[in-house]
Amino acid sequence: MSYSLTDNTELKCDKGTTPAPITVTSQSFMSIGGKLQATEEDKQPNSNIKPFGICSVLKSSCTPSLVKWQDTSVFEIDGKKELLDSSTCQCSVGGKISIVNSTQSFVKE
């Protein structure tokens, strides 16, 4: 069963050293438990996703350069597919961004 992602869900890059939360800016009206739902458009560096510490590829700041979210929901918010706990995104530098399985409050899709 997949779960929808919300604002402040922790993400990780397999080439970075630290997790970073996602900040939802792609939409402002669909929320779960008072937190905005994330969509495939939430992929801008520093705006939606902060650096993941030090990048093992570049040996410098792990600033994400996301290509496209994969394994998104079939459901859309304002024409943008929802992100799920199974969603991943390739970084153009070589890393893979995924969701940290922690104490997040996911909602079943």
Automatic annotation (TrEMBL):
It holds the Pfam family DUF4280. It comes from the Bacteria. This is DUF4280 domain-containing protein. The lineage of its organism: Bacteria, Pseudomonadati, Bacteroidota, Flavobacteriia, Flavobacteriales.
